[in-house]
Amino acid sequence: MNLKGRSLLSLTDLSYEEIHHILDTAGHLKMLKKAGQPHQWLSGKTLGMIFEKPSTRTRVSFEVGMWQLGGYALYLNPNDLQLGRGETIADTARVLSRFVDGIMARTYAHKTLEDLARYCTIPVINGLSDYEHPCQILGDLLTIQEKKGDLHGLKLAYVGDGNNVAHSLIFGAVLVGMDIAIAVPEGYEPLEQVLELAAGLPSPRKCSVQVVGDPAEAAQGADALYTDVWTSMGQEKEKQERLEAFSGFQMNDLLVQKAKKDVIVLHCLPAHRGEEITDSVMDGPRSVVWDQAENRLHIQKAIMALTM
């Protein structure tokens, strides 16, 4: 299965087989790293990393991952590029395509990624946009697969904002054959176009995609529970309004008890402890948050290795 030269802007760019190829490759790379075996599959390659938004996990995992693969990662913030001084995305893409072998971009607008990919002659990887977070969800799928043995037929419940993470979770769940329930307050639902697109995606089974207003209803019978911050970067002015709207949507012990006894709890981080998740859940026996965070490294190494 050849992903070489392909961009990854959305999980909808991938098929069921391609997702599992990435997951299998990530598992193999993880095994090699744990065994201390060299795996310099990208020796001599360079990744350009464009950051419009600051990051902990995205930057560190891509930069360290590229180094472990034998390549070099170049960090570029808006002050390092001419984009902020009027150079077009098209011209930036054409120039960077002559210098580096791949680009990872973490942007505010998804259109920026689409424009980069349109004019680049090298792979462009979505490190996060306002529409999707595909690398995060591929790492999440790897984590769920490791803990549950298989993804097929599982139920995932997401409680929180219908944001970019929720969008990618919906796409990812359908593509691998998982049921998903999204619990959100009124006015914070996932985009209708995401639900419509998900309904038409190929899937190995008939999946249930629900959007409900009751977290307990979503959690009922769930194999995995997932949450994210209520106030994302750039939404700070809405914080008080969001705290009020999401007050009944906390991932706490009572909600965890509504799910299956062997449920696992995920959070894409950073976490605002005491808001969307309690300490007792985040640090409790059902939490796989730290394995989930580590798997960002392995999944992104797989994506880079397969596309570059």
Provide a descriptive summary of the structure in words.
The protein has 308 residues and is an alpha/beta fold. It folds into two domains: 11-132 and 294-307, Rossmann fold (3-Layer(aba) Sandwich), CATH 3.40.50.1370; 136-291, Aspartate/ornithine carbamoyltransferase (Rossmann fold, 3-Layer(aba) Sandwich). The protein has twelve helices and nine strands. It has helices at 16-34, 57-68, 89-99, 110-119, 134-148, 164-176, 192-199, 215-219, 239-245, 253-256, 279-282, 289-307; strands spanning 46-51, 72-76, 102-106, 124-128, 155-159, 179-183, 209-212, 224-227, 264-267. The protein has a five-stranded parallel beta sheet. Helix 1 (16-34) crosses helix 5 (134-148) and helix 3 (89-99) packs across helix 4. The radius of gyration is 19 Å and the shape is globular. It starts with 15 loop residues before the first helix and ends with a helix. The relative contact order is 0.16.
What's a concise summary of this model?
The chain contains twelve helices and nine strands. Strand 3, helix 4 (110-119) and strand 4 (124-128) form a beta-alpha-beta unit. It has helices at residues 16-34, 57-68, 89-99, 110-119, 134-148, 164-176, 192-199, 215-219, 239-245, 253-256, 279-282, 289-307, and strands at 46-51, 72-76, 102-106, 124-128, 155-159, 179-183, 209-212, 224-227, 264-267.
